[in-house]
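dumping this here before i forget
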Amino acid sequence: MNTWKEKTAGKFTIRVVHNKGKYFGIVIKGNDKLKQIEGDDPEELWMQLHTEVLKSGPNFIGYAGAINRFLNFFPDGMSSGLFTGRERKYKEDAAIKLCEQAPLDKALTGSGFSEAIISAFRATNLLSPFEKPRVEAALKSPQADAFIQGAAKFAMGDLKAGLTQMEKALAPHTVAKWTAITYLPFLWRPKDHIFLKPVVTKNFADRVGHSFSELYHPKLNTETYVSLLDMARTTQSETAELNPTDFIDIQSFIWVVGEYDENEDAGLD
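structure:
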C-alpha cells in the first residue's frame, strides 16, 4: 500500500492510498479511522475527503441550511425586488455597461479601453477602497492594455495565459489579487465566471462543506479558480429552487450566506 497524498487538517488526517490498482481515501482522527471511500480518481477522492472533514466543522450548515439562511434575508427569493435592488441590479448594470463600452472580443486584442474599464471598476463596491485606487493606477499605466487583454483571455477560457498576463501587469501596482483578477471576467461573462472575494467565499465553503475552503491559496493559480468554479456550479445546482439566473446571483448568494449579519438589515456587498 502506497500513500499518494496525506495532509493534517485540524484534528483530522486525510490520506489517499493506492493498493492493488485501487485508490482509497481515508479520514483519521487520532488513532480512529472515521471514514474510508474508494474511487478511480485520486484527485476526486482528495476533494471528497476535504468535504468530509468540513462537514464535521462548527460552521457547517449544508446547502439546505444555506438556503434557509438566504431566505431569512430575502424571503421572496432571487426574483424579488428586494434581492434585485440590493444585490443584483448594480452588478448587472455594470456588466451591461462594460460589454457596451469595452466588448470582450475587441478587448482581447484592442487597446484604448482604460477609461471604460476604470468606469466598470467604479460601478460596484466589490473591491475594497484600498484596492480600487491601485487598480486605477494600473489602468493609467503602460501595463493597462496588457492587463485588459489578459482579463479578456481569461474570460474567453484561456485561464493560465490570462492569469499570468494579468498578474505580471498588476504586480508593479501591488494589486495582483483575486479580487482584481476575477472582476472583469465575471462582468463580461457572468454565466461562466465568478468574482472571488477570498474571506467570505471561504466562509461560505466552510458552511456548505465544499473543498474550496481547504484548496484555496492566496497565490494566483488556476487550480484555486477551477475549484471556485466547481463550487459555483454546485451552488447553482443546489439552489435551483431559487431560480438563479447566472453567477451574479450565485456570487450574491455566497455573499449573503457567508457574510450577512443576522442582527442587521440586508445590505450591499
